Amino acid sequence: MRTDKRAAVGVEIAASAARIALVDGGGTVRFRTEAKTLKGRPVVATLEPYLRAIDQAMVHAEREGLAVAGLGVSLPGTIDPSARRPLSIPVLPSLNHFPLCDLLEARYSLPAQLHVDVDAALLGEHRFGVGKGFKRILFITVNAVVGAALVIDGKIDRDSTKYVGHVSHLLVSSSGPRCSCGKRGCINTLVSMEAMQKMVKRAVLRGQETSLLERLNNRECFTPQLLAEEAIRGDVVAAQVYDEIGRLLGMAAFQYITIFEPDTLILGGKMLGSYASEIVSKQVNALCLNRASTCVREIVKIVPARLGDDASLIGSVAALFDPKASRMATVSSRSCG
Q1: Which of 8-22, 157-171, 224-238, 257-271 shows the lowest mean pLDDT across its residues?
Q2: Between 20 and 30 A from 329 (CA), which of 88, 191, 194, 319?
Q3: CB-based contacts of 294: which residues, under 8 Å, 6+ apart?
Q4: How many CB atoms lie within 10 A of CB 213?
Q5: 312 vs 270: CA distance, rounded Å
Q6: How does pLDDT run across 131-176, given as a tens digit for each residue?
Q7: pTM > 0.85
Q8: Reduced to 3 states, what is the DSSP secondary structure of residue 63?
Q9: Are 275 and 234 in contact (CB under 8 A)?
């Protein structure tokens, strides 16, 4: 069947809402919707909004004449790959150990796959984004926390969980703030929204002028978008924040590169955004080149992510378009009840 006539339903579960999309074989989102995340509810009530949204995507696929290859789910937590179920989802504990893939397969008569969100984002970049064509890809993402994932020959490397995962406790500065793990100076404590706000506050206390202060005094929320807008306009403090973030991520990236020797390093995440990803990627690249060996200089390519906020959503279904996938089955949406 032609790639442009195949599609899969991707589900990205997050704290406030889940995003559901119909993604075609070229990685293009053909339909999207959202479903509210209901916290503190039993399993059935938790899943009900998500399933309704999936049903909408299925109906759209039928209308468009698209054959649905399966369903992919990404979530903010940990999973049991062999049992294909969540182990721990802090925002939705009712789904812990629930046979999610089994339920989806029984309901839709289609194969289902489950991924940690950072892993899904890397799979998306590998198949449809900037990682296309590379064999060893390291992905560092900056969202609520810093996450990392590694792909080798198109598959997530699950033997490196000591170093990569949704929460990365890589030591960057021994004099940094204390982390929840008990250590000081973990990358999570140094590169976060809270850390960026503290950088701005320290600059204001030093007497530096910044347009950020005026916007915050007007009751605007401190967001990556606000910081990026002021950096683009030439605000010195906003630029300094990105310089510091780039320096810290560069220190972490150099350690990861030394451990894993990837062909390419991709930087992404909602906290960086397109503007910040470009700027920070250049800083990380410069720092790594200055500290790396000749071998690493010639091999590693450091680039910003391409798929943006849709990376996890698209990546959750990427493997369903692989004809070699063991669970691949192309089933027309017309045959699904």
Answers
A1: 157-171
A2: 88
A3: none
A4: 16
A5: 11
A6: 998 999 989 888 777 788 889 988 888 765 555 544 457 777 777 7
A7: no
A8: helix
A9: no
